[in-house]
Write a structure and sequence with these properties.
By secondary structure, the protein is of the alpha/beta class. The protein is 48% helix and 13% strand.
């Protein structure tokens, strides 16, 4: 059985991924702000450094996989979204590369089917340039969804830009792009008197007729971590009931 580590395993999609791996007999070490084996605030540089140090200390036998799942939705303050969704992903992956290389491990990033919707190129470029201060400055003047979609696009582009670096170390890396998924985080929005009707209309537009479930994302993640996907690398897998295809029929 494998040794895995992940961020964001306390609730929602992350909790479903953790359960799926544990049910298969794997060991899973969770990094999260609460209810975790390693508690850390990944929205801060200090918290990220502390989490990496703890992973290095506790995973000396190497890692068979790392899932970067920690993040917030578009309702969060843009500054938090910037630091957690992007830097809390790429810095943690870079920080455990040597552990993954020991075991020819796999990485799964969590992007979103909102990633193609980002239109603020300066914001995304600042993220990819690793200029957190500049990105946070831009985030002061953008709304929540632009920050969310921008970080998710940047995560996918960062993966593709670095594919040779990871494969040279024997590491496969892929991303899932969930569509609207019902979790405790999204349930609050669905019940909001202002946003709820809009969200329900959005869910009704999903071609397959239902929103995603955390288990949908967990099954896809388990497949990408497995040997059944051994020649899949650098891919962004949309798991959204056909929503991206419907919204962007001529782009792929």
């Amino acid at each position: 059985m494998g040794n895995y580590a992940m961020t964001g395993g306390a609730t929602g999609i992350g909790a479903a991924i953790k359960k799926s791996l544990i049910d298969d007999g794997h060991m899973v070490l969770v990094v999260d702000i609460k209810q975790a084996d390693i508690e850390a605030d990944l929205s801060s540089a200090q918290g990220r450094a502390g989490a990496i140090a703890a992973l290095q200390e506790q995973c000396t036998d190497g890692l068979d996989g790392f899932i970067a799942c920690a993040g917030v939705a578009s309702q969060a303050p843009p500054a938090l979204t910037t630091s957690l969704n992007y830097y809390g992903t790429v810095e943690l992956v870079d920080g455990v590369c040597d552990l993954l290389a020991k075991n020819n491990g796999n990485v799964i990033l969590v992007s979103s089917n909102s990633a193609p919707m980002s239109s603020d190129t300066d914001y995304v470029d600042s993220l990819l340039d690793k200029d957190e201060a500049a990105a946070l400055k831009i985030a002061e003047n953008i709304e929540g969804h632009q920050a969310y979609s921008g970080t998710k696009q940047a995560v996918a582009r960062w993966m593709r830009r670095n594919i040779n670096r990871f494969t040279a170390q024997g590491i496969r890396i892929n991303a899932i792009a969930p569509g609207y998924t019902q979790t405790p985080m999204t349930e609050a929005v669905e019940n909001d008197p202002v946003y709820g009707p809009k969200i329900k209309a959005f869910m009704d537009s999903i071609p397959m007729g239902r929103p995603g479930k955390p288990e949908d994302m967990a099954k896809a993640t388990k497949f990408l971590l497995s040997e059944d996907s051994s020649f899949i690398c650098g891919a962004v897998l949309f798991i959204d009931g056909g929503h991206d295809a419907m919204l962007r029929p001529d782009q792929f």
